[in-house]
UniProtKB/TrEMBL annotation:
It holds the Pfam family TPR_8. SMART domains: TPR. InterPro entries: CFAP70 (IPR052628), TPR-like_helical_dom_sf (IPR011990), TPR_rpt (IPR019734). GO terms for biological process: cilium assembly; cilium movement. PANTHER family: CILIA- AND FLAGELLA-ASSOCIATED PROTEIN 70. Transmembrane segments: none annotated. The gene is CFAP70. It comes from the Eukaryota. Keywords: Cell projection, Cilium, Flagellum, Repeat, TPR repeat. TPR repeats lie at residues 930-963. This is Cilia- and flagella-associated protein 70 isoform X2. GO terms for cellular component: extracellular exosome; motile cilium. Gene3D superfamilies: Tetratricopeptide repeat domain. Residues 362-383, 762-787 have a biased composition (Polar residues).
């Protein structure tokens, strides 16, 4: 069977002879052969008489047309055979008009070898630095075409790249196996979830080329340096692939054979651009992935990789077609017209070329205008273009024995952090403390009271027993004087004082934290008065415990929790009362100095007030409490960058990525640090790792969501996804570096170039085989895009009663990220930085978000910009960015909430009211409803819409009760003349914060209206003492006092 060239692209079938033929009517029958294909008779041979030896010479040729666009296609050749029917012509009998025939047998001819091409060799190759000036070529020959329908098994052994190994199994490398791996963890292309189906089909259902080879190369120290420099300069490394026809050389015709070889060019010459930059990442020793194959065009290859020549042409591959490419150890053959001492240049081309669509300029020598004879005129590469059309890719792995760039060990990073910030030793447990000091005071009071009662009973017991209830007040006063005289004369009073003195000293030290002398006499007197009141109150508590029958109902004390103090501090920040906010933060630290969250919150407050030194101190104290706390490490790194201490910043960020490798923010901040240091390669590494972790988290969230909804779709786990393509590897030695390279187990749907098998008539003999693939063309420049379906946990709102603790997390910067989870690594980092008030760092991240392919100007982007400018009181810019955000998402409640804050702060309360009302009317709440309710309620009070104010403040009290929410509710109720409800609300506000002068002022008004003189005077006294600033409210109080005739003791 022979395939010849013609313009009609025929396939010729020749039947030469038959053997061992026997007829029905005799041993020398007359026979002919009929050729059929695709249910069409191609022709009958002549009628030949079989010789007595059973042989017949037919020498019959038939043919059919092949047309890839219609009619008989490659698919027909692959699965339809040619039928050769042997027929005997029976002798004619008398009166027989027509010949009778009898079918003797039938032969079936499989045309698949036309596609497989038994004399076809696929080869891949690349170069690595060596000791000399020239690079060392590594070639992977004899790529095997495999049919579709079967996936490559894993693990499977790797093979030596050496021919002529005769012993069975000896070509397998000991203890070296191809294990594959999940697509998502690859560094190349086609590693996105949307590529999974395409790769599964390509590596299982489609035809593919497999090598399963591993080649190793030794890199001397100088070669390692050269390797690093080449990667840094070029970034992309060309890996070429071609089809090498193998033709048996006729004996005695070497000259003619060589001439034919020289005329041949590389067929189906493609190139994959492997991004080698990950090998310059600290600690990275291996890259593995699938890379698109493009047509080899010299101009494109030189532009991307700075390589002037093709590896295959440089080593003279077409001068040895019998054995494929020359061995790398053999002498390299270079065309005689290519002078090494001459540089080459390229003609200018217009525009940016596209693969397979560019007229590639020929390479010329500097001294001549004629193309070099060794460089073919590659005006186009139609064969290679089929790689792009079919989505061809090659999977390879490059592995080093030692990383080119060493990575700091986690132990070293931890040691460096300890050197900078020594861990704070845990506080020793003390038996003292404020609570124990008060308890000891109670105990001494009880003991002394018993001793005094015993003395009283000794002196007046009999008298009391006789008189019983007849004792009058004068008699009791007389007994009291006698008891006091006796205690003083006997020295017992002094003993009781000494007994109580130690307990009082402990209260001064432990409860009031007074251990140094007072600065003035006035300060001393003030403290003594405060201490006296406390001691008397505690004495009554102790006496009531001793004599429970006389105990009256005690008033329960409402203690503020740490979370409530944090809420009060946030409210003070929003109202720009930074002094009061600092008091709340310090109160939290005084209660629990070992709680690192308190230090982080105080540090974030210091960042808001631009006190970076104090913020750094707070973050370092938090890190000293727990040196494995990620947020503390990151914030220490951020402050180190802001204070230009870059060496420490790198330590903090790297330690964070080591402690929590899946932390997106840690990797992103590390990348931003490398950007500041102009280290583009490490910046790319950090951002790539951050994107990888965000994508992995998104996939996990998808699986979790599907499980929760009961609609789980099967998603292969990473460890179960086998790539049928074996990777290339590189291995390094100790002082030098050894590289091993492993050719892939087939470019999966790759090499679907095979329509060319019958489309180039001049190559029908040598290029008779091509895999048949129908695949989608993939965009080779497609960057990795994390999915936008990452699920974010939205905190649940909790309704709390007036005595319950508030656990909500609020912030004065007012974050707006309710409905859309972070879609990029930069937006997630922005959320983190905004929560800690690191606004100085945010603008650098926003620039990346704007340029990020997955990011860009979005509603969330403009909201963050608006927040940062609102903090600077740049109202014009804030309004401009909010207009942009509203155009992108008009129904976003966060946009309207922030608009309301803008108008409120700028004094336009009418517009603020409209925006706030729109915000609370949405089905979905904005991120920070607390401050929206507070400010909307205040506007209602200003406009005397007291019923609306009451409803608004009630909603705020249900969500997050605080002094301000209860105060607003109390004011609204007072204005509505609901005095009982007003007093209850104001009492709650006073219990949460008894230093608020406005609360005392409205309590005074309520008591004046209720006719309670003593309470009205007390409330007014505290209003004056706390220096109420609202003159209108003071005037109102004095007017009501004049009306009722009491309430001001100075009258």
């Amino acid at each position: 069977m022979e395939q010849v060239s013609s313009t009609g692209r025929p396939v010729q079938i020749t039947v030469t002879d038959g053997h061992d033929l026997k007829g029905i009517k005799g041993d020398t029958p007359v026979t002919f052969v009929r050729v059929e294909f695709n249910q069409v008779v191609l022709g009958d041979s002549a009628k030949i008489t079989v010789s007595p030896e059973g042989m017949a010479k037919y020498n019959f040729t038939s043919s059919f047309e092949f047309n890839p666009e219609g009619g008989i296609t490659l698919d027909d050749l692959a699965h339809k055979p040619v039928f050769l029917t042997m027929t005997e012509v029976l002798p004619k009998e008398k009166k027989q008009k027509e010949e009778k025939t009898l079918i003797l047998g039938q032969a079936v001819v499989d045309l698949l070898p036309l596609l497989e091409g038994p004399l076809q060799n696929y080869m891949a190759g690349l170069q690595v630095p060596s000791l000399g000036e020239k690079d060392y070529p590594i070639l992977f020959k004899n790529g095997i075409l495999k049919l579709g329908g079967e996936k490559e098994p894993v693990p499977r052994p790797k093979k030596w790249p050496i021919a002529n190994i005769l012993a069975p199994g000896a070509n397998n490398i000991p203890d070296a196996f191809i294990v594959g791996g999940p697509y998502e963890e690859e560094e190349g292309e086609l590693n996105h979830p949307e590529d999974r189906e395409f790769r599964n089909q390509a590596e299982c259902m489609k035809k593919r080329i497999t090598w399963d080879l591993e080649s190793r190369s030794y890199l001397a120290p100088s070669a390692v340096v050269s390797f690093q420099k080449r990667i840094a300069d070029c970034r992309l490394w060309p890996v070429e692939i071609t089809r090498v026809p193998l033709v048996t050389a006729p004996k005695g015709k070497a000259g003619k054979f060589d001439k034919t070889e020289d005329e041949n060019q590389l067929s189906f010459h493609g190139v994959a651009y492997v991004n080698m930059v990950p090998l310059l990442y600290p600690g990275v020793k291996r890259i593995r992935g699938a890379f698109h194959v493009y047509p080899y065009l010299d101009s494109i290859v030189h532009e991307k990789t700075k390589c002037l020549f093709s590896l295959f042409r440089d080593i003279g591959h077409h001068n040895n077609k019998i054995g494929g490419i020359n061995s790398p150890l053999s002498k390299q053959v270079v065309s005689k017209n290519l002078k090494e001492d001459k540089t080459v240049k390229e003609k200018d081309i217009d525009g940016r070329p596209r693969p397979g669509d560019v007229q590639a300029p020929s390479i010329k020598s500097q001294s001549s205008d004629t193309p070099l004879e060794s460089e073919p005129l590659l005006s186009n590469n139609p064969e290679g273009q089929q790689y792009v059309e079919a989505g061809t890719y090659i999977v390879l792995e490059i592995q080093l024995d030692k990383a080119l760039v060493p990575k700091r060990m986690p132990e070293e990073l931890a040691r460096r952090v300890k050197e900078m910030i020594p861990p704070r030793p845990p506080l020793t447990r003390r038996t003292g403390g404020a609570q124990k000091a008060v308890s000891d005071y109670h105990m001494q009071i009880k003991n002394i009271s018993r001793a005094i009662l015993d003395e009283y009973h000794r002196m007046f017991g009999k008298q009391v027993a006789k008189l019983e209830s007849d004792l009058d007040s004068e008699a009791l006063e007389e007994q009291k004087c006698q008891l006091s005289y006796e205690l003083n004369c006997s020295g017992k009073y002094f003993a009781f004082k000494e007994q109580l003195k130690h307990a009082v000293v402990k209260i001064v030290r432990e409860k009031y934290l007074k251990t140094t002398s007072f600065e003035s006499q006035e300060e001393l007197q003030t403290f003594i008065s405060e201490l006296y009141v406390f001691l008397v109150d505690q004495m009554h508590v102790a006496l009531n415990q001793t004599m429970p029958d006389d105990v009256q109902g005690t008033i329960p004390t409402i203690h503020t929790s740490s979370d409530q103090l944090r809420l009060f501090a946030f409210e003070a920040e929003v109202n720009e009362n930074f002094e009061m906010a600092a008091v709340y933060y310090k109160e939290r630290l005084a209660r629990e100095s070992q709680n690192l969250d308190h230090w982080l919150d105080y540090g974030a407050f210091c960042l808001l007030t631009e006190d970076n030194i104090k913020a750094q101190e707070c973050f370092r104290k938090a890190l000293a409490l727990n040196q494995n706390h990620i947020h503390s490490l990151l914030l220490c790194g951020v402050l180190a960058v802001l204070m230009e201490n870059y060496a420490q910043a790198e330590i903090f960020f790297e330690d964070a990525t080591c402690l929590e490798p899946t932390n997106v923010v840690a990797w992103t901040l590390l990348g931003l640090y490398y950007e500041i240091q102009n280290n583009d390669i490490r910046m790319e590494m950090a951002f790539h790792e951050a994107s990888k972790q965000l994508q992995a988290r998104m996939l996990q969230a998808q699986v979790t969501k599907q499980k929760s909804t009961g609609t789980v779709e099967y998603i292969e786990e990473g460890g179960k996804i086998d790539s049928s393509l074996d990777p290339w590897g590189i291995t390094t030695g100790s002082s030098a570096t050894a590289i091993k390279m492993e050719a892939p187990a087939g470019p999966g749907a790759a090499l679907s170039i095979l329509d060319e098998d019958l489309t180039e008539p001049s190559k029908l003999q040598s290029d008779s085989q091509e895999p048949i693939v129908t695949a989608h063309s993939q965009d080779p420049t497609m960057s990795q895009k994390p999915s936008n379906t990452f699920l974010k946990e939205i905190p649940t709102k909790k309704e709390t009663s007036k005595c319950q603790d508030s656990s909500a997390v609020l912030h004065p910067i007012l974050h707006y990220d309710i409905s859309q989870p972070p879609t990029t690594i930069f937006m997630e980092t922005i959320h983190f930085l905004m929560k800690v008030n690191a606004v100085q760092y945010v603008h650098r991240v926003l620039a990346h978000e704007l340029l990020c392919p997955q990011g860009g100007p979005s509603c969330e982007y403009y909201l963050v910009l608006a927040q940062t400018h609102l903090l600077k009181k740049d109202f014009a810019k804030t309004e401009e960015y909010l207009q942009q955000a509203a155009q992108m998402d008009y129904l976003n409640p966060n946009v309207w909430g922030l608009k309301g804050h803008l108008y409120f702060l700028s004094g336009n309360h009418a517009e603020a009211k409209a925006c706030y009302e729109r915000t609370i009317s949405f089905v979905v709440d904005a991120s920070e409803m607390h401050f929206i309710f507070l400010r909307l309620g205040l506007i209602y009070l200003e406009e005397k819409e007291y019923e609306k104010a009451k409803k608004t403040y009630l909603q705020a009290c249900k969500r997050l009760p605080s002094c301000l929410t209860w105060l607003g509710l109390g004011i609204a109720c007072y204005r509505l003349e609901e005095l009982t409800e007003a007093e209850d609300a104001l009492s709650e506000a006073n219990a949460l914060n008894n230093y608020n002068a406005e609360v005392w002022a409205y309590l005074a008004l309520v008591c004046l209206k209720a006719g309670r003189q003593l309470e009205a005077e007390q409330a007014y006294k505290y209003t004056i003492k706390l220096k109420l600033k609202d003159e209108a409210l003071l005037a109102e109080i004095r007017m009501v006092q004049e009306t009722v005739g009491f309430g001001n003791p100075s009258f």
